[in-house]
Write a structure and sequence with these properties.
single chain, Rossmann fold, 7-stranded mixed beta sheet, binds S-adenosylmethionine
Amino acid sequence: MASRDLFFILNGEHPKLAFSEVLAILQATERPYSNIGKFDQLMKISTTLDSVQVITQRSALVHRCCAQFFESGDSVEEIMETAKEMTIDSSLVFGKNFAVRVKRIQNYGAHIDKVDLERRLGTIIFNHLKQVNKGMKVKLENPDVTFYGVFTEKRFFFGLSLWKSETYSQRFDDRRGHKRTFFHPGTLEPRLARVLVNLSRVKENELFLDPFVGSGSILIEARLIGANIIGCDIQKRMVQGALVNLQQLHLSGNLICADARHLPLGDEIFAIATDPPYGRSSTTKGIELNTLIQSFLVSAANILQKRRYVCICSPTHIKLQTIANDLGFKTVELHKMRVHKSLSRTIGVFQN
Ligand SMILES: C[S@@+](CC[C@H](N)C(=O)[O-])C[C@H]1O[C@@H](n2cnc3c(N)ncnc32)[C@H](O)[C@@H]1O
């Protein structure tokens, strides 16, 4: 399948994480990609069209995906000049009517009259579709097809909208901690749990482990993208709670009561994503956090397949990278994220 240019509109709260999530999904699903461009809340990339489905099914932080028809500077003159020359792939366009929508990321393109630009781009699309015998009417409310233009840092991107995310409440809300049968205060929100799973680059049907499972947020998201799952926790009540939460969503998985420092598993694990206790709302059972993470990684190195990934969170004061590198893990990526006023977290992805 031939590669084509696509662009993705990304979550504004965690744009760097969103960018990494898309790349991790492409790597996990072994899709080819090239020509990556990184802009404020927008990522462009050349990849095959079937990547759209895997990215949009798995990702938590992509808001929209478009087939790119052109990219230009952000002045009306540059946009219109490029638009006149654009190649519209009409094989992707199906329906009786269309609309052109222009959006701004942040306040980029504030100098442009959006409605006028939509009208001018709409005229070009209308004439082109007529010429190729795919005549379509303009319909501004609920059109069959949306052509989408977006202003980001000093650039304008234009293409056909292929996919738009449902709102957060439709996609992840049902799995939020307070809606689960078993609730624990240290519960990760499902969208972040999904990102950690994606960063672990797990493939469908592979065996995935969360060794500090808590109430099961990460395990749930891993199962939902088709991984086979194992969760461990040192506390029996957490193991039982995670099991109840999986059952509530009709998901199957294995749970064991075990210490993450001495995991009773063979080397059959293909990916790990985990959020160990920070010693605040979740207990470390009196073990100093550096020691706990280090001992867990020693155990993880034995059960994780070679060249596969562990995605692990810690408070930023923990030297996660040093601990992992000293044990022979290679750093793939590091992200910093504010949790609240007195806590920031590092998310590290390391290769065995
Ligand atoms: C931060 S919670 C995990 C939260 C989980 N991500 C969620 O969203 O529910 C950490 C869990 O690690 C468990 N734990 C603490 N020490 C452990 C150890 N040595 N081995 C395994 N689990 C441990 C705690 O019982 C707690 O349930």
